[in-house]
Design goal:
alpha/beta; LacI family transcriptional regulator (chains A, B); about 350 residues; DNA-binding (chains A, B); transcription cis-regulatory region binding (chains A, B); disordered N terminus; transcription regulation (chains A, B); elongated; 6-stranded mixed β-sheet; 14 strands; DNA-binding; Rossmann fold; 12 helices; about 15% strand; homodimer; Lambda_DNA-bd_dom_sf (chains A, B); 6-stranded parallel β-sheet
Chain lengths: ~350, ~350
DNA sequence: ATGAAAGCGCTAACAT
DNA sequence: ATGTTAGCGCTTTCAT
């Protein structure tokens, strides 16, 4: 197997390849990299020797010379949580295609650790950094004058000269609202997370805009609370008391929606017949485990990660785009909680 | 800020430091690394210059020379799923302490991609590899004659000469069973995942052992099904029909337990008063969102990751342990589903 | 106590 | 068409 998988033991260098092929080390290099002129036969001989010996160029040496490391850092403040994971996945995907490897680290939301990791990444000469977060709330920049570009994904930097990619929460609210209107609902309530969260306010704003354009308003008031099932259960009771005729509820998260679904069932309201339900996140274990399965807004986190990676690669390649906070469209996933007969 | 954060612009080399300190490059190196003999004053002068200039040794150069990269690869087959994440976190934690950086990649369960990533990691001269998985089911080794050590975490290699760290599923079953017996339950049912899963069988075995030691047996039969809430709901109905007097149910996952909890409530059984409930995984969004919150078995995935990392570091450092499949103890987390008054 | 020089593995000028 | 050489940034003998 020595032809494709490096074996234990001494490392094969280009020197060995050159010797085996009976050429100089420089010629071997050129042959392997497909540059320079040389006889076809020579090139083939070198390639054969390299394959034969299981030669793998040492990236440290290459990097040392070329100044490139083909490595980027990925910093997560989410302890690899639910939100940053799809983002990382998308990023890893896009970077992998570009032959870039990913150095991963987790800050546990600790600025000290974060600083430490940034330093270490720079030590390692990463060519760029992606920062992901648990929420999209603005956060301090990881550093103004870093020698490499930085892109924020699923979190945003307070520094407007940084590029941040976040989901389109408002657009998600719009999608949910339009869908509910399209299915004939008019008394639409909204139960969501803490008012302190920009994401919660924006989702509510999206809903509000669509409703006022239709000459409607949110049934009751927007109910801000927590990102929990328990709050969903409570909120549903509050809403049913405020407006017993409510025929749809848009929730700020799938967890909240699940709590709402439970209360509705216990209060004898059928979903979706009596009350339609839309969640947010498309967190499948929650959305699918719910009865009925939830129609929900998917933030396209994979796409955010992919875009972040691509932007980073662009900047590294010297094609800087505009900085600032950029928003990635969301997508509605329709399931039984708004649709009969499924 | 040039003293602690590298600035944009040309990189500071040891050459610059040496020049600034008025010493030779070799002396500067020795001073910075605290080796060799030299006047205290000289050493101090070099250090000062280095700090002043914001010097950071280039790890590529160091690695090239020393043959070490201080890097390990982390391969996940779980798309960073629920199980591998805590493992990765633990690993990253342990490795970070050892000044080792982590190159991360995801295989999406695709052997081609996996192979590809392994090659790339070897190209980059990682000093070791950790493989994590979505389940603990045995899987093919990532390669017999790799030039670096490999440790499997939360997955196991079919090759017994590999070291694999997996949770103690059987022990988890024992913990659950003992807890239920200790709280006075005697008619204990078990609803779990597919019989095809070793994990499911082992958890059931743990339960079975404790019960037979107590002169009891599983109420009804062990109900194998799927890892879903829906199956939990179904299974609960089956069990209630088989043994209406069941006073406790141990579930193979928190999702199943959640489904069970719902059905029990709908059938008018109080949890834990009439039926105690124990889940598995300690997947907090599920376990805490359930009504009541679930007592459950925590597999200590963080610890598995940490141990995997430590073992890997040991092997890298030339202290190889024994190979084979090793098991990490689980831990019971008691919540309201088995305990009154919470 | 300090400096000079060799070399890690590789690439890219420059010679031949 | 091929070989020789000079580094990339650093550590480590070996001289001084």
């Amino acid at each position: 197997m020595s032809n494709s998988m490096q074996e234990a033991g001494r490392t094969v260098t280009i020197r060995d390849v050159a010797a085996a092929a009976g050429v100089s080390i420089g010629t071997a290099s050129k042959a392997l990299n497909g540059v320079g002129r040389m006889r076809q036969e020579t090139r083939a001989r070198v390639m054969a020797a390299a394959r034969q010996l299981g030669f793998r160029p040492n990236p440290l040496a290459q990097g040392l010379l070329g100044g490139r490391t083909y490595t980027v850092g990925l910093i997560t403040c989410d302890s690899f949580g639910r939100f940053s994971i799809p983002v990382m996945l998308g990023a890893e995907d896009a970077l992998g295609d570009g032959q870039i490897s990913v150095l991963m680290c987790d800050t546990r939301d600790d600025p000290i650790r974060e600083r430490h990791h940034v330093e270490r990444l720079l030590d390692r000469r990463v060519e760029g950094v992606i920062v992901t977060g648990r929420r999209t709330e603005p956060r301090p920049s990881i550093g103004r004058d870093l020698p490499v570009p930085v892109v924020y994904a699923m979190t945003q930097s307070l520094d407007p000269s940084d590029l941040s990619l976040i989901p389109d929460d408002e657009g998600g609210g719009v999608l949910a609202a339009q869908h509910l209107l399209a299915t004939g609902r008019t008394r639409i309530g909204h139960i969501t997370g803490p008012h302190g969260f920009q994401a919660a306010r924006k989702r509510a704003a999206g809903l509000g805009t669509v409703l006022s354009d239709a000459g409607l308003r949110v049934s009751g008031e927007v109910l801000y609370g927590e990102w929990s099932e328990e709050w969903g259960r409570q909120g549903a009771d509050i809403l049913l008391r405020t407006d017993p005729g409510v025929d749809a509820i848009f929730c700020g998260s799938d967890q909240i929606a699940r709590g709402v679904a439970e209360t509705l069932r216990e209060r004898g309201r059928r979903v979706p017949d009596d009350v339609a339900l839309v969640g947010f996140d498309n967190w499948e274990p929650m959305a699918l485990g719910s009865r009925p399965p939830l129609t929900t807004v998917d933030m396209n986190l994979n796409e955010i990660g992919r875009l972040a990676a691509r932007h980073l690669l662009d900047i590294i390649a010297g094609r800087p785009g505009e900085a600032g906070v950029r928003t990635v469209p969301a997508r509605l996933v329709v399931r039984a909680s708004t649709r009969h007969g499924t």
